[in-house]
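sanity check this fold:
=====
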Amino acid sequence: MRLRQALPALLAAFVLTGCRHEPPPSSAQIEALAMTAAQRADAAAEQQLQRLAAQGLPVAQRELGILYRARPAARGDAERLLRQAAQAGDAQAAYHLGELYRTPAPGVATDVAAAWPWYQQAAEGGQAKAALRLGLMAKNGDGVPRDAAVAARWLQLASDLGNAHAMFLLSYAYREGDGVPRDAARGMALLEEAAEHEYPPALQELALTVGDPTRAGHLMKEATEHRRNNWNRF
């Protein structure tokens, strides 16, 4: 409701920005505009986003590229915009460009290997999901040679950035000595940390590991609830 009420003023501010020599809109303003364009199919908001992208603003290029990713006919434009933003140093754009290359699309083959450098740029820019993708690619030999040590390094970065899925996978790596020295205590600590982040598989695994039946029951209940209600977070 607040976004809907603020939209006319927001659009007016963008128009004035284009007419006068004023500072460009903030990243938060551009992202709010993109949310309006996507969620409400607002043509005026999308047109303003296009104008901002044409001015070379990386955040606008990224947000317009994300919007176009959902439209198969606009895949080429999405790739171009995301690449422009990523080359300007936008880590989120680099992540979404990697996703574009990795994700199948009607009539377009995936190019998983091409996704790697963009995920790497995004991960080095602080995008936890990109670091997770790199860890999974190296772990599974998906588009790159299978390498457990490389996988563990990227999973460690993703874990350090707060990604619970990576914590869970890394806990297995330490317990099994897969790509890292075997360290059962560290593996258990990572499993506990992933569970604290409410990651359902970690909660379930921990429930099967702890010796306290009462705690195990609580953990299994949490796992079921978070799998049902919060899975998209991960």
User: Anything to note?
Assistant: The domain at 1-125 is CATH 1.25.40.10 (Serine Threonine Protein Phosphatase 5, Tetratricopeptide repeat). The mean pLDDT is 91.
